[in-house]
Design brief:
The complex is a heterodimer. By secondary structure, chain A is mainly alpha-helical. Helices cover 71% and strands 1% of the residues of chain A. Chain B is 49% helix and 0% strand. Classes of the chains: A mainly alpha, B mainly alpha.
Chain lengths: 392, 149
């Protein structure tokens, strides 16, 4: 049979979880990682990365809006998805995710963004005209009070929201790893380290994404890049990357040392079908090279231009590496037979509902949403002092 | 200014949440079937609806009331525990009105559903390569399915 090597049970030949299920944890990881970067400013008081605070929140929101779409497209019947809320099934991790998603979207992200932008929204509701003015007026919820005391209250409440948001972000993304890690029947997925590895790789991809977006948007606006800001982000990225890589290696070493009955099969798979995506893309190009590049910046004194180029290259490689990690988990876990006697092949479609074009569209869509959000709620620090003066 | 006034916008945001929650409860009230959760995580009324659907299978006890000779022959063979309608299909209409004749079985197709060779089947299970074994000749030409030899 084409694409099948050795013996596969009949229900294992076709992969049921497609590239969209790869995309889903990648997107939620970006959400969680971007939020963690924002929390560095709000909770951990890392002033140097403040220029990216608002951008990180908007990035998280843009990607979170798109996060359920891969699942909706994969499952079909989107009209049934509200059932998850109307008749909740408390013992299903997948069903409970609906509540985690809604909580994180409304009680954490939207609320925190609203609190942080409230002063700007009030100013914009006075300085704009037409439908924009009406939109901003709706966003003020009818309150024009931006007295120092009310803003101080916003700041305190925002701090609490971020504190609550950090575990919420971990739950949002850790749940994906939790589902894979809980599947006893699949030795490639079944590991208690899976949620932890997912969370750390999420932080790496989200922080790298905001770093790239900050540099890209600043370059597009022809503004100078705040080097202490990007240097600090790169430093945090480097440290978290080290932790992430250590955890992934710990998982790998544990599997090698444990060497249970599935080991030979999985080992063969890593050296054949997953060699390019796991060894080459995920570990070498997507992890070791960016760690090495970021380490060089940490231990040497390079000119700003070189550092910026290193950050761009590292950021792009991190995205490739983390996407490859999601790919290897989701697709890799379906390539081998539970009989441990055979392997199948994933044939990605091009223009179907779960094909490559849809996956590319869903990857670009959050960037479009982010562009709209940035037009509506400019995240740039200089806007706060400059163009957002109230109308006379 | 009082705290209530300076935190008024927060109450407005909280009020939005309360309104959204009330709307959710209202919608839920109308869209969730009344009998949902009566016995478990499903519509209680579904049991009655399913029970009210017409029966298609008669059950092997019904078949054996008229076809006692076949039932006796089956007891001697490997197919003792295979129910009549597993091969012959649903026969409630035939049981209610014997003038309605069951569809004639094509053993060339039916038998290999179970007996086609497959590495996933236990070694002792009778299995053949249908092309090599019979070349399309109907199985009952040589085998008696009711005593399964």
């Amino acid at each position: 049979m084409s694409g099948v090597e050795g013996y596969m049970y009949p229900n294992e030949i076709t992969l049921y979880w497609s590239v969209l299920i790869v995309l889903y944890p990648y997107i939620t990881g970006l959400v969680a990682g971007a939020f963690i970067l924002a929390s560095l400013v709000r909770v951990f008081n890392v002033k140097a990365v403040a220029p990216t605070y608002r951008l990180a929140l908007l990035t998280a929101l843009a990607f979170l809006i798109v996060a359920p779409l891969p699942l909706q497209l994969h499952l079909g019947h989107p009209g049934r998805s509200p059932e998850m809320y109307f008749t909740p099934h408390a013992t299903s991790a997948m069903a409970m995710f609906g509540f985690v998603y809604l909580w994180y979207l409304m009680a954490v992200l939207v609320f925190e963004i609203w609190l942080d932008y409230r002063s700007d929204i009030v100013h914009l509701s006075q300085s704009t005209t037409g439908w924009l003015r009406r939109l901003y007026r709706i966003m003020t919820l009818g309150s024009q009070n931006i007295s120092p005391r009310s803003l101080a209250i916003d700041h305190k409440v925002g701090w609490i929201v971020t504190i609550v948001g950090i575990p919420s972000a971990f739950i949002l993304h850790g749940y994906v790893g939790f589902i894979f890690g809980s599947l006893k029947a699949n030795p490639w997925w079944n590991s208690p380290l899976m949620p932890v590895v997912f969370i750390f790789s999420a932080m790496v991809s989200g922080i790298a994404a905001v770093l790239l977006l900050y540099m890209l948007t600043t370059w597009m606006r022809k503004m100078p890049i705040d080097m202490p800001c990007v240097d600090t982000i790169a430093m945090y990225l480097f440290y978290i990357f080290i932790l992430d890589f250590s955890l992934e290696m710990l998982d790998l070493v544990h599997r090698v040392y444990e060497a249970d009955e599935s080991f030979r099969t999985l080992n063969f798979m890593v050296h054949t079908r997953l060699y390019f995506s796991q060894i080459v893309l995920q570990i070498c190009i997507g992890t070791l090279v960016p760690i090495l590049l970021l380490a060089i910046v940490q231990v040497t004194k390079l000119p700003a231009l070189v550092r910026r180029r290193i950050y761009v290259v590292s950021g792009c490689l991190v995205q490739i590496g983390v996407f490859a990690m999601r790919w290897n988990v989701v697709i890799g876990g379906q390539l081998f037979s539970k009989s441990f006697l055979g392997y199948t092949t994933y044939k990605m479609a091009l223009v179907t509902r779960e094909g490559l074009l849809v996956a590319i569209f869903l990857t670009i869509l959050p960037l479009g949403i982010l562009w709209v959000l940035m037009k509506l709620l400019p995240p740039w620090p200089e806007k706060e002092q400059g163009s957002l003066e109230p109308a006379a | 200014m009082s705290l209530t006034k300076d935190a008024g916008h927060l109450f407005r945001f909280a009020f939005l949440f309360v309104v959204a929650f009330v709307v959710f409860l209202l919608v839920r009230h109308f869209v969730v079937p009344k009998s949902f959760g009566e016995y478990g995580h499903y519509r209680g009324a579904a049991i009655g609806e399913i029970a009210a659907r017409p029966l298609h299978y008669a059950g092997h006890e019904t078949c054996e009331t008229c076809h006692a000779d076949i039932a006796e022959a089956k007891k001697a063979g490997k197919h003792e525990n295979v129910s009549c309608e597993a091969c012959h299909g649903p026969l409630a209409k035939h049981a209610n009105d014997p003038s309605i004749q069951p569809v004639k079985i094509n053993t060339t197709v039916l038998c290999i559903r179970c007996h086609a060779e497959s590495a996933a089947k236990p070694g002792g299970f009778p299995q053949i390569d249908p092309v090599q074994h019979s070349g399309g000749v109907p199985c009952e030409t040589c085998h008696q399915p009711h005593n399964g030899l």
